[in-house]
Amino acid sequence: MQRRNPRLFLGFLAACVPALGLLVAFGPPVGATTGPAGARAAARSALRQLTVGQHPTNQRVPGHTARIGGLTQVRSLNWSGYADDHSAGNTYATATGNWTEPSVSCTSKTSYAAFWTGIDGYSSSSVEQDGTLAQCYHGAAHYYSWWEMYPSNAIQVVGSSVRPGDAISASVVRSGTSYTLKITDSTHSANSFSTSQSCSNCANSSAEWIAEAPSSGGRILPLAHFGSWTESGATVKSGSTSGVISTFPDDEITMVDNAGNIKAQPGALNGSGNGFTVTWKRST
């Protein structure tokens, strides 16, 4: 098992490269449409593709992280979870994970929470990712399945019938320049998909398991109150070595606001090194 030497990380990752792109068009109120079907259509139409391939300029977030054995703690303005990094020269071919879709409390009219696994985005502008998205739109909750692939770096919504409690499995598998992105919703199969994409210049420099506050027009959107999100059974492959999150140099990522206040806090990896829980703390 490869583990990073303990060290005090006074630096941190700011914004981590917003991997999930969302352009929110705050259009006509839900009341402008009629009935639940119209409300759902209005909510889905509020999702627009946004190119997010450019790495943002790093910004300093107040505070610092504590020394912890074998693990680097970093802070981000929009990510919370874990990433296996490139510090040992690793490149990654597989990232998988499982979770039960959490329920969001729509305490504000518009907020979002994305849950995903994938390759790249942590230290590169290329992203190959898939997962689920919870959207609070005009106070009502909506849930989707989606994927995203470099170079378009635009979210592709597939299913809109994801529900809290659904059993989700996500994977991104690379073979040469071919990538297979797959979501299985064992509870509502209409949200499941598998798509093959190609990329000849993707970095493959990280693997991630992330709860994210999506971005729009260069700003981070309010994080929906998801309570907690538990990633389990995560696997990862680098070169000929297959393992779990802790097999490779892994970074624990805490989401904070511009003042350093915690928005979403990951717990420690479980004893098997393949799972953890992120707990929601605040929306903005």
Distance between the termini: 37 Å
CATH homologous superfamily descriptor: Peptidase G1
Please give the count of helices.
Answer: 1
Structural class: mainly beta
- The CATH class is Mainly Beta
Secondary structure: helix percent: under 10%
CATH topology, which one?
Jelly Rolls
**Largest sheet features:** 16 strands, mixed
Mean pLDDT: 82
The whole-angstrom Rg is 18 Å
Uncertain regions: pLDDT < 50 for 5+ in a row?
1-34, 49-70
**What's the shape?**
globular
CATH architecture: Sandwich
Strand content: 35-45%
Q: Could you please describe the fold and organization of this structure?
A:
The chain is mostly beta strands and 284 residues long. The chain has a single domain (23-280), classed as Jelly Rolls (Sandwich), CATH 2.60.120.700. It has one helix and 20 strands. It has a 16-stranded mixed beta sheet that branches. Strands 1-2 form a two-stranded antiparallel ribbon. A two-stranded antiparallel sheet has the order 14-15. The model is unreliable at 1-34 and 49-70 (pLDDT under 50).
